[in-house]
């Protein structure tokens, strides 16, 4: 019974040990502006992963999701729980889904799907990072099982999410550069949902990735306006 009560709070926040980078896209598709679709098929290639070469990301690869940073208890989206697939693979897939839902291109696909495209998109992932303050109140709530978890379900703590992609470029399949979009960086600082076991850091990173990809679509549309295809 004690074990069941311990697991209940994790269930309530929709958390699992193996985390996935994803977010809902139905709302994006419903609002898609197809009048501005770029009429090309684009293969979204898996980005180069440069995160290990940036010191600020080191904690993601060396620490657990609940750790100490800046003299405080913190929750982070530690790499060890992205077990089912590489982070760059998952980001390429959800970005492809987002591009299709928003009707950015005539079609977008991930490289492993085997769809023939005349263009491909490449880039470098420098950061997919979330940290937020650990919540002792959420921990106390979790110790009281279902009732405690419900009582603390709306708790939030201060944190930040950083997403950084550079070298974002569109090529023809013959290797001809069509457009260099440069770098795209966003840092989100806010009060984020928190739970006792720090699983919410992963969901918070995903939610900010949705906003990041939404703005990336806008940037690509804008930058492609005067490009002759």
Strand percent estimate: 25-35%
Number of helices: 7
User: Rg from C-alpha positions?
Assistant: 19 Å
Measured distance between first and last alpha carbons? 64 Å
Order of helices and strands: HHEEHEEHEEHHEEH
Largest sheet at a glance? Answer: 8 strands, mixed
Number of domains: 1
Q: What class do helices, strands and sheet pairing give?
A: alpha/beta
Sum up the overall morphology in one term.
Answer: elongated
Low-confidence stretches: 1-15, 139-148
Mean pLDDT: 87
Q: Helix proportion of residues, in percent?
A: 25-40%
Indicate the topology.
Blueprint (H helix, E strand, L loop, with lengths): L1 H11 L13 H5 L7 E7 L3 E2 L8 H5 L3 E4 L2 E5 L10 H15 L3 E6 L8 E15 L2 H7 L2 H7 L4 E17 L4 E17 L6 H24 L6
Parallel strand pairs: 1-5, 1-6, 2-6
Antiparallel strand pairs: 3-4, 4-6, 6-7, 7-8
Helix pairs in contact: 1-6, 5-6
